[in-house]
Amino acid sequence: RDVDICKISLATACAVHETVKDVLESEKKGNLYLHWPNDIYYKNKKLSGILLAAVDGWVVISIGINIHSVSMPTAVSFDDIVSGVSVSAQQLFDSVLNKLNIWVNLMLTENFFDIREYWLCNIVGMNSEVTIRNGRDSLSGIIRDIDELGRLILERNDQRLHISSGDMFINEKEIMVNYG
After folding, report:
1. CA distance 127 to 170
2. Is the dihedral of CA 171, 173, 174, 179 positive or negative?
3. pLDDT value of residue 178
4. Which of 12, 2, 49 is nearest to 163 (CA)?
5. What pTM was computed for the model?
6. Which of 111, 136, 134, 126 is nearest to 170 (CA)?
């Protein structure tokens, strides 16, 4: 179901975000953000992306973390932001897997509140104008919340819209404000 995919997506992003945050120097932790629905950004650059697919009753989770230098101007690597810390890909994988187990168990025990709260404390773009694109459809509004099903709540023309999937785009000027 779409709703379950939303929750699993958010729980997975929490696991990746928490893993990276654990090894960052304290002065850098505030620059690490969750980008709805399932990306991790450092400042205004993508560090990690997550894809989920439902296949024959199973959910397949694919997690990509840019570990070594990347040549895309919109991306950043783990090596670029972590100085003086030696963490292998295997150590990152093991940590993500352990944390994923914790976050998914929270979701399965009907404790989605903790996942939602973690997101609300770490999401980029809160109370900012964003555009959600889903295929050819495009919808703009202001991020106001995440609901109990894991959907993004956008405010548009005094209405609250609940969005379960899509790609989120934030005005570049607003990103710079959010990242200080």
Report:
1. 11
2. positive
3. 44
4. 2
5. 0.87
6. 126
